Amino acid sequence: MSLSEKLIASARDIAPMVEKEAYNTDRNRKLSDAVIDACCDAGLMQILVPKMYGGHELDYATMAAVVYEFGRYCTSTAWVISFYIGHNYIHALWPKQFQDEVFANGPCGLTPGTIAPNFRLKPVDGGYIASGLSQWNSGSSRADWFLNSGLVMIDGKPQRALAFMVPAAEVEIIDNWDMAGMRGTSSGDARLNDVFVPQHRVVEVADLLNGQSPGSKIHSNRIYSLPILPFVLGETLPVMVGAYRGAADVFKRLTEDRYSTFTSAKVQNKQTAQMRIGHGQAGAAIAETLLQDYVRFLDTIEPSEIQAIERRAEVRARVGMIADYVYKGINEMMLGAGGGAYRNSSPMQRFLRDMNVLRVHGFLDTETATENLGRVQLGLEPNCPL
């Protein structure tokens, strides 16, 4: 058994714990320490960490397969673990001095955060002073570092965007995550009040977007030279596809066990129920095929082949449309799931709520993504990061 197969098998072993904890994850608005610790102990967080730092330096296929296993039972858990794994990959894009720092105590760290430019950065000797408030910091209940982004301000005017890392001890974590969906992701706000950020913890956002980060010059493996947006979109895809498969399987079991309220007839004998089961199972299989296509894309494409803005716009639109496809498939099943599927104890309503939130995520919103693809194909400037 290869290392990749062993890690995926470990994820399958952890998945029953994820399923058992799913209700409490949603209710408590965060993952349990037990689930996070199990993933850390199994070596899942360092799937894409360079070998020079004790990581596995494997491929996106391994990461996607691990996240998919969790997505079948709990969208929130899959989302947070995907970001923890993915942000350990992002650590390897920073200057070597930061990589030495973040991997000093082991081959992984827990890093929530976002590259949306929420902060203001004031240049000072040796770095910057960061201040501001950011939202959507998934996984903030357990953190060693925070990934942030901000605009360099000179004379009150923004000059350029920088991504930067800050130790969790220097961040004020605000426990205000209370959403209709993705409730278990602890994606609360984070505030920085005049925090000094040394230069070695900083990267130009443009360099990340173009695959020209400091890490791309340190590590020869092609994965560290990929433009960051296709990878970040790849963090989300196995979460959503896993949710579709999980919802389809739950709906099938639910239908087999249900009886009509007024006639006591078995619901599975209704043609509409049979059609919905078939639609859900086939739809989940199609989503899995789309995921495998994206796996092959990220694991084989040369970074230079996705330098063109048109190609990145196409990737973003594709993933956005998959998000919409998954939501519609789960919603169609819910129409035939009965009132009991809307109880908080039912996985079906969690899958629906979670996908309803994800389909309007800043990177997954279909309208924004397809608009930008149309813009660049018409020779117009994009109006969102690509």
Topology:
Layout: H1 3-28, H2 33-41, H3 60-71, H4 75-91, H5 96-102, E1 119-124, E2 127-134, E3 145-154, E4 157-167, E5 172-174, E6 189-198, E7 202-204, H6 205-209, H7 228-257, H8 271-300, H9 309-334, H10 347-358, H11 366-377
Parallel strand pairs: 1-3
Antiparallel strand pairs: 1-2, 2-6, 3-4, 4-7, 5-6
Gist of the model:
The protein has about 375 residues and is an alpha+beta fold.
Task: Quickly list its features.
Butyryl-CoA Dehydrogenase, subunit A, domain 2, Butyryl-Coa Dehydrogenase, subunit A, domain 1, 3 domains, AcylCoA_DH/ox_N_sf, globular, 386 residues, Acyl-CoA dehydrogenase family protein, 13% strand, Acyl-CoA_Oxase/DH_mid-dom_sf, alpha+beta, seven-stranded mixed sheet, Butyryl-CoA Dehydrogenase, subunit A, domain 3
- Contiguous helical run count: 11
Q: What coarse outline follows from CA principal-axis ratios?
A: globular
β-strand amount: 5-15%
Evaluate the radius of gyration: 21 Å
Work out the count of structural domains: 3
> What's the architecture of the largest domain in CATH terms?
Up-down Bundle
- Lateral arrangement of strands in the main beta sheet: 5-6-2-1-3-4-7
GO molecular function: acyl-CoA dehydrogenase activity; flavin adenine dinucleotide binding
Protein name: Acyl-CoA dehydrogenase family protein
Keywords: Oxidoreductase
Domain Acyl-CoA dehydrogenase C-terminal: 239-365
